Amino acid sequence: MSYEKCVGCGSCVKLCPMFDAMGEEQFSPRGKLYFLQVMDLLEGDEELGKEFRRLLFQCTLCGRCEETCSSGVNLLEIWHKQRAAAVEKAPEEFAYLDSLRNALANVRNIYGLAMEDRAIYWLDELVDEIPELEERVYEKGKTAETMVFLGCVMSFRGSQIDVLRSLFRTLERLKVDYLVLGAEEFCCGHPLYLMGDDKGADELRKHNKTVIQDAEAKNVVTCCPGCLIQLKQYHDLEGVEALHHTEFLDRNLEEIPKFNQTEPFAYHDPCELHRILGVTKEPRSLMEKMNVDYKEMELSCCGGGGLLRMTDPSLSEIVIQLRTAREGVKNSTVLTACPSCREQLMSVDLKTKDIVELVDGALGGEE
Ligand code: SF4
Ligand code: SF4
């Protein structure tokens, strides 16, 4: 087991948002690794096993532990494999995830809504302003250079409509040849992957791969870092480049007019975008091009990752409350580039915007 590389230095402990929130070693990466070693020694101890399985899902999978560890412990891989083993060993302890699993199996989205609804809400909301959208929804036989993969949160949540408006307006303004997967999109598989169910995730990925390839796309663009992890690393999209919208926009916008800033901004960098995917320059490059003045928030988790909002909502809330209080951003608009981070920021009444909203504003908005 790769945990043997752990020298117990504790560098990962203080940086872990779970330890920060709970103040107990068992919630920290080092504590969990210690648990794992003890479990290997005391194989069959039911109480210990149950406690460990609970702790595994009290983690946002933010990756800060792995980034910090100078001994090269592959912590994210350990958490992933252990989550899979935990769910397999004691499915009854994870019955609360059944509704999510059933929704994904039956209607291929996390909300349990009808599949065709993926291209109804936002289309109804935006088509009067952006009439071109009517033709942008993918149907068999249509092709485009760029496929837009919205993901479940952006397809269904009304809270994301401003981001979608800005995204589509910007793509139209840039004359991008694009289609939106719409009702043909399945969940990217990330929620199943986060619970260690690679086989279930693969079923969803296969369908998306077929649609993207049928559309003869050269690239697929998404605003959601979780979807991007799946599209980039697990969809096996030969010849199709998967890009975050900030990467796509930064590449296609050499210069952007100055953004007319009237409020203080802070930037919350999404963990999955920064640490897992390494997309760090593009969001900042876009802000620099628009001459945006912003405060960099500490590179720390919002508390919304790793399914924590489902597995332990009160812990998730403590994390975002602590982060907000520590950073002193109550009177700022928190910029970010992830729909799930936005949901988490909004849950504590913070004003938040995606970077594409600024790009859209700088380019002239609805004019
Ligand atoms: S992934 Fe993040 S939350 Fe999970 S143990 Fe590592 S630092 Fe803590
Ligand atoms: S930083 Fe690495 S070596 Fe140090 S305690 Fe954490 S996992 Fe172990």
Protein architecture, described:
- By secondary structure, this protein is of the alpha/beta class.
- The chain has three domains: about 1-90, no CATH class; about 100-250, 3-Layer(aba) Sandwich (Rossmann fold); about 265-360, no CATH class.
- It is about 50% helix and about 10% strand.
- It has helices at about 10-15, 15-20, 30-40, 45-55, 65-70, 75-90, 100-105, 120-125, 135, 150-155, 160-175, 190-195, 200-215, 225-235, 245-250, 270-275, 280-290, 310, 315-325, 340-345, 355-360, and strands at about 145-150, 180, 220, 240-245, 265, 295, 335, 350-355.
- The strands form two sheets. A four-stranded parallel beta sheet has the order 2-1-3-4. Strands 6-5-7-8 form a four-stranded parallel beta sheet.
- Strand 3, helix 14 and strand 4 (about 240-245) form a beta-alpha-beta unit.
- Helix 3 (about 30-40) runs antiparallel to helix 4 and helix 11 (about 160-175) packs across helix 21.
- The termini are far apart.
- It binds iron/sulfur cluster (2 copies).
- The site of one iron/sulfur cluster (SF4) has 12 residues, from helix 2 and helix 5.
